Amino acid sequence: MQVRVLYVSRAVGPQTTTVTASVLSTAREYNRANGITGVLCQGQGLYLQVLEGERSAVNALYARIVADRRHRDVEMLHLEEITRRRYPDWSMAHVVLSDDDPMIGMKHPEFDPYSATGVFVLRLVDELVASGHRIELPPA
Ligand SMILES: Cc1cc2nc3c(=O)[nH]c(=O)nc-3n(C[C@H](O)[C@H](O)[C@H](O)COP(=O)(O)O)c2cc1C
Protein backbone atom coordinates (compact mmCIF):
# COMPACT_ATOMS: atom_id res chain seq x y z
CA MET A 1 0.00 0.00 0.00
CA GLN A 2 1.28 3.41 -0.97
CA VAL A 3 0.88 6.69 0.86
CA ARG A 4 1.64 10.36 0.40
CA VAL A 5 2.77 12.42 3.38
CA LEU A 6 3.22 16.17 3.66
CA TYR A 7 5.02 17.86 6.53
CA VAL A 8 6.29 21.32 7.43
CA SER A 9 9.36 22.21 9.50
CA ARG A 10 11.55 25.15 10.46
CA ALA A 11 15.19 25.22 9.40
CA VAL A 12 17.78 25.39 12.17
CA GLY A 13 20.47 27.91 11.21
CA PRO A 14 20.72 29.64 7.86
CA GLN A 15 18.75 27.89 5.19
CA THR A 16 21.16 28.02 2.29
CA THR A 17 20.56 26.11 -0.88
CA THR A 18 24.04 24.60 -0.55
CA VAL A 19 23.14 22.98 2.77
CA THR A 20 19.92 21.58 1.42
CA ALA A 21 21.51 20.43 -1.83
CA SER A 22 24.08 18.45 0.12
CA VAL A 23 21.34 16.94 2.32
CA LEU A 24 19.50 15.98 -0.84
CA SER A 25 22.37 14.43 -2.72
CA THR A 26 22.60 11.68 -0.09
CA ALA A 27 18.85 11.64 0.44
CA ARG A 28 18.22 10.84 -3.20
CA GLU A 29 20.33 7.71 -3.02
CA TYR A 30 18.34 6.52 -0.03
CA ASN A 31 15.07 7.44 -1.71
CA ARG A 32 15.95 5.55 -4.87
CA ALA A 33 16.92 2.49 -2.91
CA ASN A 34 13.69 2.64 -0.94
CA GLY A 35 11.22 3.60 -3.64
CA ILE A 36 10.56 7.09 -2.25
CA THR A 37 9.65 10.00 -4.51
CA GLY A 38 8.59 13.59 -3.82
CA VAL A 39 9.35 17.26 -3.63
CA LEU A 40 11.14 19.42 -1.08
CA CYS A 41 10.29 23.14 -1.09
CA GLN A 42 12.38 25.56 0.91
CA GLY A 43 12.08 29.24 1.62
CA GLN A 44 11.40 31.76 4.36
CA GLY A 45 13.08 29.49 6.89
CA LEU A 46 10.60 26.69 6.24
CA TYR A 47 10.66 23.31 4.59
CA LEU A 48 7.61 21.69 3.01
CA GLN A 49 8.18 18.14 1.88
CA VAL A 50 5.99 15.62 0.10
CA LEU A 51 7.05 11.98 0.46
CA GLU A 52 5.44 9.20 -1.57
CA GLY A 53 6.04 5.48 -1.42
CA GLU A 54 5.20 2.25 0.37
CA ARG A 55 3.65 3.06 3.72
CA SER A 56 6.33 1.28 5.75
CA ALA A 57 9.14 2.92 3.76
CA VAL A 58 7.59 6.38 4.14
CA ASN A 59 7.12 5.84 7.87
CA ALA A 60 10.71 4.72 8.33
CA LEU A 61 12.04 7.75 6.43
CA TYR A 62 9.70 10.15 8.22
CA ALA A 63 11.06 8.92 11.57
CA ARG A 64 14.63 9.63 10.41
CA ILE A 65 13.68 13.04 9.11
CA VAL A 66 11.90 14.02 12.35
CA ALA A 67 15.06 13.15 14.29
CA ASP A 68 17.26 15.31 12.05
CA ARG A 69 18.61 18.29 13.98
CA ARG A 70 18.99 20.47 10.91
CA HIS A 71 15.33 21.37 11.33
CA ARG A 72 12.75 21.52 14.11
CA ASP A 73 9.00 21.74 14.72
CA VAL A 74 8.38 18.96 12.21
CA GLU A 75 4.63 18.70 11.89
CA MET A 76 2.76 16.27 9.66
CA LEU A 77 0.05 18.15 7.80
CA HIS A 78 -1.38 15.38 5.66
CA LEU A 79 -1.31 11.63 5.07
CA GLU A 80 -3.33 9.80 2.45
CA GLU A 81 -3.40 6.41 0.78
CA ILE A 82 -2.72 6.69 -2.93
CA THR A 83 -3.00 4.51 -6.00
CA ARG A 84 -0.91 6.86 -8.13
CA ARG A 85 2.06 9.01 -7.27
CA ARG A 86 2.03 12.69 -8.11
CA TYR A 87 5.82 12.78 -8.61
CA PRO A 88 6.70 9.27 -9.81
CA ASP A 89 9.94 10.31 -11.53
CA TRP A 90 11.53 12.42 -8.82
CA SER A 91 13.67 10.78 -6.16
CA MET A 92 13.35 14.27 -4.60
CA ALA A 93 12.86 17.45 -6.57
CA HIS A 94 13.96 20.67 -4.91
CA VAL A 95 12.00 23.92 -5.22
CA VAL A 96 13.68 27.05 -3.90
CA LEU A 97 11.56 30.08 -3.05
CA SER A 98 13.03 33.51 -2.56
CA ASP A 99 12.09 35.34 0.63
CA ASP A 100 9.84 37.80 -1.15
CA ASP A 101 8.28 35.23 -3.41
CA PRO A 102 5.14 36.70 -4.94
CA MET A 103 3.52 33.30 -4.93
CA ILE A 104 3.46 33.26 -1.17
CA GLY A 105 3.51 36.98 -0.46
CA MET A 106 0.78 38.26 -2.73
CA LYS A 107 -1.34 35.35 -3.73
CA HIS A 108 -1.45 33.90 -0.23
CA PRO A 109 -0.76 36.83 2.12
CA GLU A 110 -1.73 35.03 5.30
CA PHE A 111 -0.03 31.81 4.43
CA ASP A 112 1.05 29.92 7.52
CA PRO A 113 1.46 26.20 6.88
CA TYR A 114 1.26 25.48 10.63
CA SER A 115 -2.35 26.64 10.66
CA ALA A 116 -3.46 25.86 7.09
CA THR A 117 -5.17 22.60 6.13
CA GLY A 118 -2.99 19.85 4.68
CA VAL A 119 -5.01 19.80 1.47
CA PHE A 120 -4.47 23.53 1.00
CA VAL A 121 -0.71 23.25 1.50
CA LEU A 122 -0.52 20.24 -0.82
CA ARG A 123 -2.26 22.30 -3.50
CA LEU A 124 0.20 25.13 -2.92
CA VAL A 125 3.14 22.77 -3.41
CA ASP A 126 1.56 21.63 -6.68
CA GLU A 127 1.16 25.26 -7.77
CA LEU A 128 4.80 25.96 -6.97
CA VAL A 129 5.91 22.94 -8.96
CA ALA A 130 3.68 23.91 -11.89
CA SER A 131 4.41 27.63 -11.92
CA GLY A 132 7.92 27.65 -13.29
CA HIS A 133 9.78 28.12 -10.04
CA ARG A 134 13.33 27.01 -10.23
CA ILE A 135 13.18 23.30 -9.70
CA GLU A 136 16.27 21.20 -9.31
CA LEU A 137 15.59 17.72 -10.49
CA PRO A 138 17.65 14.76 -9.41
CA PRO A 139 19.94 13.52 -12.17
CA ALA A 140 18.26 10.77 -14.19
C1 LIG B 1 14.36 19.08 5.29
C2 LIG B 1 15.01 17.73 5.20
C3 LIG B 1 14.57 16.80 4.24
C4 LIG B 1 15.15 15.55 4.14
N1 LIG B 1 14.70 14.67 3.18
C5 LIG B 1 15.26 13.45 3.10
C6 LIG B 1 14.82 12.51 2.13
O1 LIG B 1 13.94 12.76 1.30
N2 LIG B 1 15.43 11.29 2.11
C7 LIG B 1 16.44 10.95 2.97
O2 LIG B 1 16.94 9.83 2.92
N3 LIG B 1 16.87 11.83 3.89
C8 LIG B 1 16.31 13.06 3.97
N4 LIG B 1 16.78 13.95 4.90
C9 LIG B 1 17.93 13.54 5.74
C10 LIG B 1 17.48 12.66 6.90
O3 LIG B 1 16.87 13.49 7.87
C11 LIG B 1 18.65 11.91 7.52
O4 LIG B 1 19.70 12.79 7.81
C12 LIG B 1 19.21 10.86 6.60
O5 LIG B 1 18.17 10.01 6.22
C13 LIG B 1 20.32 10.05 7.26
O6 LIG B 1 19.80 9.43 8.38
P1 LIG B 1 20.73 8.95 9.59
O7 LIG B 1 21.42 10.20 10.07
O8 LIG B 1 19.78 8.35 10.59
O9 LIG B 1 21.68 7.97 8.97
C14 LIG B 1 16.21 15.20 5.02
C15 LIG B 1 16.64 16.13 5.97
C16 LIG B 1 16.06 17.38 6.06
C17 LIG B 1 16.56 18.36 7.09
Q: Which helices and strands occur, and which strands form pairs?
A:
Elements: E1 2-11, H1 17-33, E2 37-43, E3 46-54, H2 55-66, E4 71-82, E5 93-96, H3 102-105, H4 118-130, E6 135-136
Parallel strand pairs: 2-5
Antiparallel strand pairs: 1-3, 1-4, 2-3, 5-6
Bound molecules: flavin mononucleotide.
Flavin mononucleotide binds next to helix 1, strand 3 and helix 2.
Number of helices: 4
Class based on secondary structure composition and strand pairing:
alpha+beta
Kindly provide the radius of gyration, computed on alpha-carbon positions and rounded to a whole number of angstroms: 14 Å
**Annotated CATH architecture:** 2-Layer Sandwich
Terminus-to-terminus distance: 26 Å
| Bound molecule kinds, no repeats | flavin mononucleotide
CATH topology: Alpha-Beta Plaits
Strand arrangement within the widest β-sheet reads: 4-1-3-2-5-6
Q: Report mean pLDDT, rounded to a whole number.
A: 89
What does this structure look like?
The protein is an alpha+beta fold and 140 residues long. It has a single domain, classed as 2-Layer Sandwich (Alpha-Beta Plaits). Helices cover 33% and strands 31% of the residues. It is built from four helices and six strands. The protein has helices spanning 17-33, 55-66, 102-105, 118-130, and strands at residues 2-11, 37-43, 46-54, 71-82, 93-96, 135-136. β2 (37-43) and β3 (46-54) form a beta hairpin. The radius of gyration is 14 Å and the shape is globular. The mean pLDDT is 89. The structure holds flavin mononucleotide. Flavin mononucleotide binds at residues 23, 27, 30-31, 40, 47, 49, 61, 64-65, 68, 70-71, 92.
